[in-house]
Design a protein that fits this description.
Two copies of one chain form a homodimer. Chain A has one domain: Tetracycline Repressor, domain 2 (Orthogonal Bundle). Chain A has eleven helices and no strands. In chain A, α7 packs antiparallel against α11. The longest helix of chain A is centred in the last third of the chain and has 26 residues.
């Protein structure tokens, strides 16, 4: 990121320097990642080419050329958020055996993600789904697709736990909907100083992981 | 509301007319109620004296005089939202006997509130708590107080159901936290076209209302 924020001399120097910096996917990814941080605090609606350019010491036209429209920038930011979330929360849980153990690891990773926020505004989807539910279009579609994938991942692991006889019969789709809802509520609670929010999430998960009698 | 939106002639006429209109609590309440509608769609952060004045055909200075600061306007809007919510969701449920029956009525009223939205952007708290969790101050405090009261109301009714032997032993605080979380998730799902969201909420409630064995 440091190469994106170094100062530049005259306007022309800046343009030449921008030209070099903006070339290649690396700069694009760095801009997207910064857009995620901004959007976690102020919402994807609060993104603008001017704001990102100022924050990163780039020219606005350079950033705009890379992404085209604000909507494309927002969709790209959502993709970058998903990648960072996958690395921080999902990938570590995949190292744990499927089913109940993996679900416990997943929830532990998620609580870490919200408690020591990966994004400065906390959970990226908690903030943005509530904002974009009234705004049909490609950004909302991207966020909903990601939410569906996430709930689907939870439901699949719950099914594995049920198939392995680890838990009693369970409506896995409904339980995944509930767990996701509780995570979003816990994110808000954590940000507002409720230190028991992580514990609440763990207790809700355990209520689904009751072994068969 | 109609007296607030009628057109006016010259700037001076408007000022005189505003003076009359703005007198008294009735106009204040009407402005607050419109602020709730705007905030349900664009968030309490999106409120401005200028926007409200334009929408209602009033002078900006007149509206500003009534509320003083933007923060006071936001807190007043939160109070107005709570009053409208109480009338639409809570009061009808209070007519039903305490415990399980009242909880079922409450959830039915809530689904109606979200399906045929009382506020154009759907649930007022779903949108604004997610926005204000990163913004400490009196607005966030007001929203959190309202959320606490709402969860407390649900928990109390769950306790009544348990005390009356209608439901098995239950962690009522945790169940209230879960129900509220599921309602917020259902609000987003409904706004994004998920017609089964109301049914999901009812199934979650019933999972808490299991009679003792």
């Amino acid at each position: 990121m440091s190469e994106l924020v170094r100062g530049s001399g005259s306007e022309t120097d800046a343009a030449v320097s921008d030209g070099r910096l903006l070339r290649g996917a690396r700069s694009r990814r760095a801009i997207e990642r910064h857009a995620v941080d901004v959007a976690s605090l102020e919402g994807l609606s609060g993104l603008s080419f001017g704001r990102l350019a100022t924050d990163l010491g780039l020219s606005k036209s350079g950033v705009q050329t890379l992404f085209g429209t604000k909507e494309s920038l927002q969709v790209a930011a959502a993709g970058s958020a998903r990648d960072a979330f996958t690395d921080a929360v999902i990938r570590p849980a995949l190292a744990v055996p499927r089913g109940a153990a993996r679900l416990r690891a997943l929830i532990d990773q998620w609580i870490g993600y919200a408690e020591e926020p990966l994004f400065p505004g906390g959970c990226f989807w908690a903030a943005n789904l509530a904002d974009f539910d009234s705004k049909p279009g490609p950004v909302r579609d991207a966020l909903l697709r990601q939410q569906r994938d996430w709930r689907g991942f939870i439901a699949t692991e719950l099914r594995h736990a049920a198939d392995a006889g680890e838990v009693a019969d369970l409506d896995t789709e409904l339980a995944a909907f509930q767990l996701d809802a509780v995570l979003v509520a816990a994110n808000i609670a954590l940000r507002c100083g409720d230190r028991e929010a992580g514990d609440k999430v763990r207790r809700v998960l355990e209520s689904f992981l009751v072994p068969p009698r």
